[in-house]
Specification:
The structure holds two protein chains of two kinds. Chain A is 6% helix and 26% strand. Chain A is mostly beta strands. Chain A has a single domain, classed as Sandwich (Protocatechuate 3,4-Dioxygenase, subunit A). By secondary structure, chain B is mainly beta. The chains are: A mainly beta, B mainly beta. Chains A and B meet through strand 2, helix 1, strand 4, strand 10 and helix 3 of A and helix 1, strand 5 and strand 9 of B.
Chain lengths: 234, 191
């Protein structure tokens, strides 16, 4: 049984962040209504028993030939707010190819598609909360948010944890990317530390020598161990 | 040790090849599922009154027809209906619409021993949403709505935004619009 403390101001993006143009007509204008955590919020979809294909976590092996680009390993731990590994968490990723193009019918960026790269994968965390992907480093790409807008290289992550409130969709960035400083999506998060925690780190211990560099990206999901002895204090 | 949860980021416009290729996730009730089989159609409308074409995604989480969740925290999970999956996920189509095949959920126990009205938990992701929007769908004209503890927190003049309505002439078909802004703005929850 976990409890889910409310998130601290600034550590999550605001719905309305005018620098991110798409938020202006999609952010709710009325204040949110705070609701208690009932069984509906404390339960949630679990994915531990769904089959994961052998190469689902290797985005370089989805076709007969390898994709173009810089091969990378992306690995880390999924943790709860107590720092405990979250086991059997479904981790889904999707990304642009090395030229900065998504395999999506509406991506109009005039960069080449790679016939050997789909750009989507998934993994399940082990008993200690570890996950690992092999992929290629995605390229930066332009978007129409404002004149000459470019997204920094990033990988989209989607995670299911222990319950509905630990559900998270986020993006992982690469260390040293100068485009992060001018990215409104990243800067929709007010807190500097919370932005920095979305930036992966080069980790030589995860690298495979002569084969691929590795980036570590640890993810913290909402939820901490409940403290039953305090229940009577309410 | 206390860690700060990682920040959310938008799913962006191009998530579907990663998240919603499996349209079977719109079918939550198998043929043998207990209870009243229904379809539930969503239409998502932005602040300009336009549907969100293909760039938003709805996830549902609900109890089975007896109000049981398939999750260890629910003390009745061991007897939950195995022909029913409480989770569903679909992208909105070019008209901002997606339709789930499910069952009408039963009443879920509340913390204090009372019961909640039948409801479905909704998480909405999309381009422009830095973090998901959370809401619930209730069923219009269900007598249990009158004493639901969460509906009671919603101003009376906005409760209608949470009520799915029966579709005229189609047995078992329900529909609801999610308005992100405007006069009919849906009530969203801080959980």
């Amino acid at each position: 049984m976990k409890e889910y403390p409310r998130t601290q101001p600034g550590t999550q993006p605001e719905y309305l962040y005018e620098g991110y143009r798409s938020s202006i007509r999609r952010a709710p204008s009325q204040p949110l209504i705070q609701v208690p955590h009932t069984l509906s919020e404390l339960t949630g979809p679990l994915y531990g028993h769904n089959p994961i294909g052998e190469s689902d976590n290797d985005l370089t092996r989805h076709f007969a030939d390898p994709p173009l680009g810089e091969r990378i390993i992306v690995a880390g731990r999924v943790l709860d707010e107590d720092g405990r590994g979250v086991p059997s968490a479904l981790v889904e990723v999707w990304q642009a190819n090395s030229a900065g193009r998504y395999r999506h019918s509406r991506d109009g960026h005039p960069a080449p598609l790679d016939p050997n790269f789909l750009g989507a994968g998934r993994a399940i965390t082990d008993a200690a909360g570890n996950y690992r992907f092999v992929s290629i480093k995605p390229g930066a790409y332009p978007w129409r948010n404002h004149p000459n807008a470019w997204r920094p290289a990033h990988i989209h992550f989607s995670l299911f944890g222990a319950g509905l409130l630990s559900r998270l969709v986020t993006q992982m960035y690469f260390p040293g990317d100068p485009l992060m400083a001018i990215d409104p999506v990243l800067h929709s998060i007010a807190d500097e530390g919370s932005r920095q925690r979305l930036v992966s780190s080069l980790d030589l211990s995860l690298t495979e020598p002569e084969w691929a560099l590795a980036y570590r990206f640890d993810i913290v999901l909402r939820g901490r161990s409940a403290t039953p002895f305090e229940e009577g204090k309410g | 040790m206390t860690l700060t949860p990682s920040a959310s980021q938008t799913v962006g416009p191009f998530f579907n090849f990663g998240l919603t290729t499996n349209h079977a996730l719109g079918t939550m009730a198998l043929d043998g599922a207990e209870g009243e089989h229904i379809t539930l159609a969503f239409r998502v409308i932005d602040g300009d009154g336009q549907p969100t074409p293909g760039d938003s995604m709805i996830e549902l989480w609900q109890a089975d027809s007896q109000g049981r969740y398939q999750h260890t925290v629910d003390p009745r999970s061991a007897t939950a209906d195995e022909s029913f999956c409480g989770f569903g996920r679909l992208e909105t189509d070019a008209n901002g619409v997606c339709v789930f095949e499910t069952v009408k959920p039963g009443r879920v126990p509340n913390i204090n021993g009372s019961s909640q009205a039948p409801h479905i938990n909704v998480t909405l992701f999309g381009r422009g949403l830095g973090k998901p929007l959370r809401t619930r769908v209730y069923f219009a004209d269900d007598a249990a709505n009158a004493d639901d503890p969460v509906l009671a927190l919603v101003p009376a003049n906005r409760r209608d935004t949470l009520l799915a309505k029966p579709v005229a002439g189609q047995a078992g078909a329900w529909a609801i619009e999610i308005h992100l802004q405007g006069e009919a703005e849906t009530v969203f929850f801080d959980v």
